[in-house]
Design goal:
elongated, Phosphorylase Kinase, domain 1, 8 strands, three-stranded mixed β-sheet, alpha+beta, about 200 residues, three-stranded antiparallel β-sheet, 2 domains, binds iron/sulfur cluster
C-alpha cells in the first residue's frame, strides 16, 4: 500500500466502488466474467492434459489458437483446471495455475541436449541421436551386467546397474507400456515421483 501512487489509489477504490455498486443493483460479476471467458476461448482449440509438476497429477484444459497447417503459428493462450477431472475437480494450486508461464518460458528445454564427458558445455542433438545413444548405452550396460543366476545357481534374470525414473503425469496406459518394455529386460530399479 505504501508504494501505491495517488492515481493508483483512486483507480483501485473507483473500480471497487463500481463493482460493489453493480453488485448491489443486481449485476453480479460472475456471469459477466464467464461470458468474457467464453468469448476469449470461442475460437480456441481445447485439449485435455495433466499438470506435469507433482504427483497429484491434476487434470488441466489447454486452449490454443492457430494451426501450422493453415500457416498460423499455434499458440497456447489459456490453461485452467479440468472441472471433469476426478483428482482436482477444476481446481489448481498456485504452481499449476501458473502453467501458462512455464509453457512460454524462454528457459524451458524443448529439445535433447548432450554434454560430453569432461566438457562444461551442452550441445543440442536430434531426438533420433538422443534415442540411439540411450539405446546403445542401455544395451552395453545390460550386456556387461545382466545377472542370469545368483550365487546359489537360482535363476534371477536381473539387471540392477541401470534404473528408470518415470513421470507421474503419465497415463495408466503409458505406465503399463513402460513396465512391459523395461521389466522383461530384467530392470528392477524403477521409480516414479508418485510412488506407484
Ligand atoms: S496443480 Fe499443483 S497440486 Fe495439481 S499436479 Fe500441478 S503442482 Fe501438483
Amino acid at each position: 500500500m505504501t508504494d501505491m501512487t495517488r492515481r493508483q489509489f483512486f483507480k483501485l477504490t473507483g473500480a471497487t466502488l463500481v463493482g460493489s455498486s453493480l453488485g448491489l443493483l443486481g449485476f453480479a460479476p460472475g456471469p459477466a466474467l464467464a461470458e468474457v471467458r467464453q468469448f476469449k476461448l470461442l475460437r480456441a482449440t481445447e485439449i485435455r492434459n495433466t499438470c506435469p509438476y507433482c504427483s497429484v497429477a491434476c487434470g488441466i484444459l489447454m486452449y490454443s489458437l492457430g494451426d501450422r497447417a493453415k500457416n498460423a503459428e499455434a499458440n497456447i493462450i489459456h490453461i485452467e483446471g479440468d472441472p471433469d477431472h476426478p483428482v482436482n475437480r477444476g481446481t489448481l494450486c498456485p504452481k499449476g495455475a501458473g502453467l501458462l508461464d512455464m509453457v512460454h518460458s524462454k528457459s524451458r528445454l524443448t529439445h535433447p541436449e548432450y554434454r560430453a564427458p569432461g566438457s562444461d558445455k551442452w550441445q543440442r542433438i536430434s531426438w533420433d541421436d538422443a534415442l540411439d545413444r540411450i539405446s546403445r548405452l542401455l544395451k552395453a550396460d545390460r550386456d556387461a551386467n545382466f545377472v542370469a543366476k545368483n550365487a546359489e545357481g537360482q535363476t534371477v534374470n536381473r539387471w540392477i546397474t541401470t534404473g528408470m525414473l518415470a513421470a507421474s503425469g503419465a497415463t495408466n496406459e503409458v505406465g503399463y507400456l513402460t513396465h512391459k518394455v523395461m521389466r522383461p529386460m530384467g530392470l528392477l530399479v524403477f521409480d516414479n515421483q508418485a510412488r506407484v
